[in-house]
Amino acid sequence: MTDFAVRLLDWFDQHGRHDLPWQVDNDPYWVWVSEVMLQQTQVKTVLQYYDRFIRRFPTVQALAAATWDEVAPYWAGLGYYARARNLHKAAQVVAEAGQFPQDLDGWMALSGIGRSTAGALMSLGLRQYGVIMDGNVKRVLTRYFAIEGDSAKPHVINQLWQLATDLTPVQRNSDYTQAIMDLGATLCTPKKPLCLYCPMQADCQAYAQNRVLEFPQKTAKTPNPTRQAQVLFLQVGTQYLWVQRPDQGLWGGLWCLPIVENPELLQKVKQQFGLDWRLGMQIKHSFTHFHWMLEAVHVEVDQVTALQVLAALGMQDLPQQWLDADQAKQVGIPQAMVKLLEE
Predict the structure, then answer these.
(1) What domain range is 210 assigned to?
(2) 325 φ/ψ angles, rounded to the nearest 5 degrees
(3) DSSP-derived 3-state class of residue 168
(4) Does residue 221 lie within any of the structural domains?
(5) Quick one: 110 and 26 in the same domain?
(6) b (16+ CB within 10 A) / e for 263-299
(7) Cis omega (within 30 of 0) for bond into 216
């Protein structure tokens, strides 16, 4: 075992996190759900969703047997909804097979599972040898070794994987996996690292060079573009007309108010049906690659006209239902829709 691993494990034994709800022996499913939720999401946020999800779907068989409409409300608000769809799809594959994958390739063959998540499932789920490379590990290693270059580029990623493999021990592998994630999450943080408390400080090259905040390095990105859209509140009484978005794409499979990105088409529909609408609040919702400015458009109509409007907008083939605000929050809607409803 390397000196790096020894020091990290000594620190973990005293200061690591040992009470996370997914830290259970012999239950790959609980670890799997946590790993998927933790992709792009911090632990403190995941903790607000994890227990509720597990109570509803306590086993991989329970998740596999559920419909997507049953799963969606338990993920709503976590974002990156493709993660949930992939988890649901992969659970059906595992349930049908009757067992969890037993090697790295088997895990990676499932929807939504890459090399790092597969390594975590080998290590934390099956308690076998596994190597991970999540954001925390990347940050720790690039700082410890002062690795120059864009950490998203293949040659840097390959270098990091080799270092991670060299450092990861066979003995206490699952503890080491949790330990290096904990170090990145609690001490070697992105903006205000607590270097004075770090067990790796003595040998950390970035610390020695007083360049800790320079790692991991990234190529400057161009600002994300901003797109405009209007959200239709087609209202009858206290209910609004909702549509289920296509499985592929933004908010795939979730229920949303109709969203129109073509202002000319919307004006044409307004004139065609003589709609009297008022504009409501506008919110900004950010995705990985763009910002969406969403403006509420309130229209009181009858049900027949509402369906005709939907058809004129080309949404007639999407599943539809009438829901009031409270009902909508129970079926799994994006956080942006919740914000607009709370107006």
Answers:
(1) 3-214
(2) -60, -45
(3) coil
(4) no
(5) yes
(6) eeebeebeeeeebebeeeeebebeeeeeebebbbbbb
(7) yes
DSSP of 234-275: EEETTEEEEEEPPSSSTTTT-EE--EE--HHHHHHHHHHHT-
What are all long-range contacts of 152-159, with beta carbons under 8 Å and residues at least 24 apart?
152/218, 152/219, 153/219, 157/133
pLDDT given at position 40: 87
Which of 168, 186, 214 marks a domain boundary?
214
Q: How far apart are alpha carbons 156 and 142 in whole angstroms?
A: 9
Task: Specify whether 284 is located in the same domain as 165.
Answer: no
The pTM for the full model equals 0.88
Quote the pLDDT of residue 247: 86
What residue ranges in the chain does DSSP mark as E strands?
A: 226-236, 239-244, 255-256, 259-260, 277-286, 291-300, 320-323
Please report the pLDDT score of residue 284 as a whole number.
Answer: 95
Would residue 35 show up in a list of annotated catalytic residues for this protein? yes
Domain boundary, last residue among 170, 185, 214: 214
- Of 35, 261, 295, 300, the active-site residue reads 35
Q: What is the pLDDT of residue 219?
A: 87
Within 145-301, where are the H helices?
A: 154-167, 173-186, 205-208, 263-273
Q: Which residues of the chain have pLDDT under 50?
A: none
Identify the CA nearest to 277 among candidates 320, 306, 315: 306
Distance from C-alpha of 297 to C-alpha of 324, rounded to nearest angstrom: 16
Considering the domain architecture, whether residues 244 and 170 belong to the same structural domain is answered as: no
